[in-house]
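ENTRY TYPE: paired fold submission
RECORD: A
CONTENT: sequence, then structure tokens
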Amino acid sequence: MSHQINKSAVKINQSSLPLKENGSGFNNATDKELLRFSIAGSFGDGKKTLSAQLLKRSFSGSTDQFLKDSGGSGVAKVNITLITGEQQSEQQQGIVTGGTTHFFVSSKRRFFLEEAPGQIGSAGDMVTVVRSSDVFVILIDARNGIVAQTRRHLQIASLLQITNVIIAINKIDLVNFSAEVYTVIKQEVEQIASVLKLRNTWVIPISATDGDNLAEVSAKTPWYIGETLSDLLDTIPVTHDEHTFPDRFPVQNVSVPVTFNNHHYTGFEGHVAGGVFRVGDTILILPSNRLSTIKAIDDRGAELSEAFTSQQVTLRLDGNITISRGDLFVKLNVKYPHYSSVISLKVYWLNANPLSAGAKYIVRHATGETEAKIEYIRYKVNFDTLENIKADQGVLLNDIAHITIKTQKPLKYDDYSENRITGSLLFIDSATLETVGAGMIISDPEVYSYNI
């Protein structure tokens, strides 16, 4: 399964400028489209090396500590000693690091890069990092091919419904730039992608150390006719279309009273979780089913006429209506959310203590919490065969399973495919208050069946 990209790509180049930590840049960089992508791989696959190469190509006159002189070869190389030394130090100390974040900009786009932790024991950080990505770059060591962790990463991409997945076969130089090695891995990736129903996948042979097929097509891989990694990152279509989703506003906090222009009023704070809310819109308040009108939208002292997805704002409503944290505002006459206490979902289990039928947890959904009981486990996924295992009901650390839960209070939710905020939830251990699982709500279990 592949997706063709326009060959008129704009490469990440030396004339690009860095972004500040808050994502703002220079010379109108903030006017450029933002692409959020993450990189993951097993330990030693070259994640830090690849990140350093991408950053080198984006900073003007970079003196990044990861880079070293080309030695007259004309090709800047990555200082592997620094990188591997850092990794070995962390490994010796038993440190499992979370995602590392970078901001940079090319001549066409702004980029928000997160290095997802590759260790199996860091699944929670992996899900957190990858779920907001437009593109997921999965590294494979050409010498090892697809391993169990690769399958896990592809499963996560499918579970989180990441639209674009790039498989970077790294260290292709260590297998003598073998077209046969590339073809075998590519065919296996395409088979798995088809089973997992991944939307768009690309497979690129690279050498992160020497830069082959990163910004320029390598003469050492004449058998590869696709784009470079930089070309893809600069040209993959990005559709931040959350504003087209059904309009949702989960109430995070009720502010009483709030003073604005010397007037006191009740404000309802939160993030817009989908769609657009405008002054004058009629809204339905759930679960009370009462109607009201948006009187004003405030953003840190400024009045707005409208608020879009992801904006944190305070809404003021007409009338005196009792509203609590966890209530949900939806616009009238749009697709309404489901309202039920029996919910079907896929869960990625993040805890050493296994998940089992009958167990109870705190469920955190949008801005609300309630208690939930695991009603039954439909199946869990075998990472090697990608088959659904119905006989094995023991869901262990890093397992993905399809389950049904019953909540103490009904949830106001959408399918995960329609809204990642109202369509997802977290399982919390009531004794330790640790997050033990991440769930993605689905209404039809057959839609996400991975049986071959």
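RECORD: B
CONTENT: sequence, then structure tokens
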Amino acid sequence: MRDWLAHLWASLTWPTMLLGAGLFLVSFAVSTALVSFALVRLPANYFHSSHARAFWEDKSPAMRWSGVILKNLIGVILILLGIIMSLPGIPGPGILTILLGLVMMDIPGKRPLETRLVKRPSVLQAINRLRARFDKPPLVLD
């Protein structure tokens, strides 16, 4: 382990460190922008029990199921990325990305999990501040 760290330290150069810092900043900015865009676009009553959850009801069964499968796949990817971003030293809004992944998925028991995440004061305040910045109403919870 000590040899590995010594080798790692010796291999660091200014171009390598600048590249790492640049990738850090770009990945942080892109992930924050994408999550922010999605949270601003959510209806204000999305987390309220009265919000309908139908997805492409007016489409053909083949198109609807293709969309549901793709939506769930994107949800799984977002949850995995959110877990990775929740680790120390990894840039990005981890909890909000996990929440966005849960919103995308169609799994049993997701409503209570979503609600529990959104009801955390720090998460709800962050989302509502973001929505206010874009002149969107705050989220309505049960």
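NOTES ON RECORD B: Residues 31-133 form one domain. Helices lie at 2-11, 14-41, 61-85, 94-104, 110-118, 121-133.
STATUS: closed
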